[in-house]
Amino acid sequence: MGIRKREYSTQQEIIEGCIKREPTAQRKLYEIYAPRMLTLATRYSGDRERAKDVLHDGFITLFNKIESYGGFGSFEGWMRRIFVNTALMSLRKADVLRNSEQIDYASGEMSDAPDAVESISSKELMELIASMPDGFRLVFNMYAIEGYSHQEIAKELNISEGSSRSQLSRARAWLQERIRRQNEGERF
Amino acid sequence: MKERDFDNRLKQRMESYGETPDPSIWLSIESKIVVPAKGGRVVFVKGFRVVAAVAAAVLLFYIAGREFFIQERESPLVEVLKIEESPTEINVDRQIPERGEVPKILPAPTVAVASVEREPQIKTDETLTDKKTEPETGQPETKQTATRQPETRQLNREFTKDFSGDFPIELQIKKRRGRPSLAFSTTLAPSVGTNERVLHTFAQSDFKELSSSLDREQNQPETVYDTRYLPSVSVGLQVMIPLSKTFSVATGLSYSALYSITDEQRFSDKIRNEQTLHYIGLPLYLYANIYSTERFFLYGGAGAMVEKGIAERIKRSGPVPQDYTNRVDGLQWSAGATIGAEYVLGRRVGLYADPMVMYYFDCNQPKSIRSAQPLQFKLEIGLRYRF
């Protein structure tokens, strides 16, 4: 009466297996997406330990709610929203979001070299994003990477839209400055 | 422009980058999500309790019913023996019916049948022998009995249309009651007109606060699912083996087909999914005879069935038509009870109808009428052949 192991050749089969609560399918889904979701969790959380908690809680939520995925649109996009939500809930619990609007340094001036991103490794880039001040980090991740609008960010983080725009601008400048310094051999 | 370019480059780098998480995270997740096996065992135990309760109810009903009918009727054989003990009460002239007087002499064939069956035990045989060996003696009592026997047989032939050989049909049916039988059945579940409509939106889910404008544009989350279930159909073969005069056990093999249609209505298009599920089942039922006449049996039964899904076939029509087959893992357990009736058509064949109530346990099977409506009423109709 036990469930036999089987190979899953397509994403659709894996999703169907997860809906049926098949352990093999759940493991397979985890193996495929956990590395990228861990990166996402680290970018939002700012530290590794909290990111692990987000990864853990996010996958449990995902497996419990996978029936809600209607089978249309990007599954990874749907999955990323779960992990973003889990990360934001984790930050709310830690009272990080309350102080997000108070951060007011960095000039907000954009450098002339958008391709500076290419000059450092992905790992270094992720670590830089994770090391951003909380307000910068959340606005920048939500807008630049996940595609939220300022209105949605403002509602989610309980800040004004103007503040969201302002922090995004400063976050870009902050990040570019750090990339430039890193390229010049400086360490922070 | 520079800002958007910067964002896009950074987004591409971050979306494709991943780090291998610590193995302990998966172990922790796994320990919290593998719950169905425990739930399945609980359902399994509960299922047996239901089966036991139904079986006990049928047994009680049988015992109560049997007590009642035993008081109402006496065995025809007892009547015969009484008659033989007081031969003066048997008047051959009175027993011979006039044509057209069927209702008055209906008990007579039963007496005759029983006396033929028990020939060695009653005095009739002895008197017949006396007649053959001592025809000249002319004893009055012997003559009277000797002339009576052929007449009762004549009587029997007149009122038994399906007479075969030395025994009438009723006796042959009686003899075959306690023998194994093979039944071919068809089962219909008329209680399956359930329609199920589901509106899937982000507003209903736990992720509404996560849906950005970009997500909503890409995913079109509002979809109406309209599912209709058609009556399930089963055919099967059943072998029934008597355990005693009262109880029989039955098992066999059954095939069931479940069919449903789900229409997905989206913003811009409509998709139809036609699902056909195929199951092979192994039933195990205990039957108890409640009441019987020469040609009619009433019985009760309860038991369980385990089914293995052979395949789930999905035919998807819409903008991108698909036709594919999924494997069905696991087993479907069910329990049921019935009060059935059988009418004997001939010496070996009976037509039976078993209205039954079935409960399908949640065994993590693909969505079907059994998951939407676990308690179902069914009607099984078939032919039963006795060896």
Describe what you observe in this structure.
The complex is a heterodimer of chains A (188) and B (387). Chain A contains 8 helices and no strands. With 188 residues, chain A is mainly alpha-helical. The model of chain A is unreliable at 101-106 (pLDDT under 50). Chain A folds into 2 domains: 11-93, RNA polymerase sigma factor, region 2, helix turn helix motif (Rna Polymerase Sigma Factor, Chain: A), CATH 1.10.1740.10; 101-183, Winged helix-like DNA-binding domain superfamily/Winged helix DNA-binding domain (Arc Repressor Mutant, subunit A, Orthogonal Bundle). In chain A, 64% of the residues lie in helices and 0% in strands. The radius of gyration of chain A is 19 Å and the shape is globular. In chain A, helix 2 (23-45) packs across helix 4, helix 2 packs across helix 5 (122-130) and helix 6 crosses helix 8 (161-183). In chain B, 22% of the residues are buried. Chain B has 2 domains: 74-159, no CATH class; 177-386, Beta Barrel (Porin), CATH 2.40.160. Chain B is built from 12 helices and 10 strands. By secondary structure, chain B is an alpha+beta fold. Chain B has helices spanning 2-15, 23-33, 36-72, 76-85, 92-95, 102-105, 107-117, 123-133, 140-159, 169-177, 213-219, 369-372, and strands spanning 181-188, 195-200, 223-242, 247-265, 270-292, 296-317, 322-326, 331-344, 349-360, 375-386. Chain B is elongated. An 8-stranded antiparallel beta barrel of chain B has the order 1-3-4-5-6-8-9-10. Chains A and B meet through helix 2, helix 3, helix 4, helix 5 and helix 6 of A and helix 1, helix 2 and helix 11 of B.
